[in-house]
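Field: sequence (string)
Field: structure_tokens (string)

Example rows 1 and 2, in order.
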Amino acid sequence: MADTILVVVEQRAGKLNRVSWETLVAGQAIAADAGWSLEAAVVGSRVSSVANEIASKKLAKVYAIEAEALEAYTPDAFSAALKQFISSAQPRLVLMPHTYQVRDFIPKLATSMGRTVISDCIGFRKDGGKPFFTRQMFQGKFAADVSFSCDAPWFVTFQTGAFRGDQVEAGTGAAPVETVTVDISSDAVRTTPQAPFKEAKQAVDLTQAEIIVSVGRGIKEQKNIELARQLAETLGAEIAASRPICDSGWLPMDRQIGSSGQTVAPKLYLALGISGAIQHIVGMKGARSIVAVNKDHEAPIFEIADVAVVANLFDVVPILMEEIKRAKS
């Protein structure tokens, strides 16, 4: 078993999921701390462009794992492909972003190899040469350092926002890219991918948003959502909300941020009238910059905010939009 870390990045239709950069940063940090080699792999069909994009970073090698059966995502095909590759390459540690897709296939992959997964991690440390990975528990109230009792390869997924993707180190030159063709029998894939349902096309993946305007109970009435929507349009942002807003049907459930919604890490998170319950904070505290507007100066959201505005959001938002428009003109 080589002292190698393998980062499996995620792509859809030849486009890299930006959360993959965060996982690469995690891999680079662990590799530097442990003195291990770092490699990356991308799974799909005709993914050489994504592999070459990754190869510009500080990596020893990049693998393009290809098969026609990987053209469209299925958990069976992706699990079979990665099992073949990992069994051959034998990395000690396998890192992946904690995305919906990874959550779908990683239990099957790890189980098929007789291994376990430490999932949704926010950090790592080394104790006596043994790696430990930090997971939040009880909706972020506690954190536990967890390690493996099984043999390698070890599987770990990292939460969105645990590392900053813009801190990924570039290589001194392009890492070598090797195409690995895997054999996946037709019997191995038990599902046939279909076109997405109409509802899925309308859904939003807030994990990809760079700016988010989020509203809470302080918005008072459903009709006032329009004010936040106008601010989001002015900023080129996505609109989101805390759970009470979505439970009331004022915004769709796919706009909910928090422990029972989406976990996000945008460059800017603008919280309007959000008090900052722990369930909500768990979903957005990885944002690079947090600006909170709340008229309650004791609101818990202010404890993690980079900029705290103690004011009525209905007074602040119109002025803010005017200033943004003036700056753009």
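Row 2 begins here:
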Amino acid sequence: MILGHQRQINFLKKILDSGKIPHAFLFSGQEKLGKRKIALEFSSWILKEPPISHPDFLLVEPKGETIQIDQIREINHHLSLTPFRSKYKIVILDSAHLMTIQAQNCFLKTLEEPKGNSIIILITPFSELLLSTILSRCQEIKFFPLKRKEIEDFLKNKKIKNKEKILEVCQGRPGVLFEILKDPKKLKEIEKIEKTLENFPQMAIFQKFNYLKSVNFDQFLEVLISYFQKKIFSKEHSRAVKILKLAQNLQILCLTSKVDRRMALELLSLEI
């Protein structure tokens, strides 16, 4: 289901009703806001049936850590075909920021020379990693965290424990909420990491390094960023801002270059 983002949904409905659908969209905003769900829903409106397994629909995701040029060629081939059952051919390019530079340059040609009734939806939390020439050719729709009340209202009649903690952890991100509702252990994992982060300033360097050997890099970094985002509004403001910037820079560095992730986390831990 889709939670929130009514303004963006209404905007997409108006575009659909106008009959003038742009060739390319960019759904931007931090991770786990529901951008992909809405992209799939929008595709279903256009195709007038569920997109998955539809012959006129293609979902492209990273192979490993990148989206490669052969995947862009697959997009070009898909869009070159005549629509089979719909008026449009649709492609969703998820995690578009993970396109290699070669893939981005190839994809740019796709945007410059649109084929027939084709619609492409790029999804990314890091639009700054895309070529400016790609950005300029897309209709951008920005997504933001939901207001606390939207999630409170959704949880009101649900018989679950730790509602306050869930609201705190979600920080307006429906994706995090649904992960916790699907697997309650997720909340315990997050709480465990947050507890460790609270103790980090008192831990010896070897203790920090030993702990980091056992963590999942992506999960730890995600929780760390969320943790210090909350600290911005506390007495630890200046420290939180400094660590948050370092963590966000590390996140982008890991997406754009091959770095030793564990070593990078160890260096970051020295600042906590």
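free_text_note (row 2): Strands lie at 24-28, 57-60, 89-93, 118-124, 139-142.
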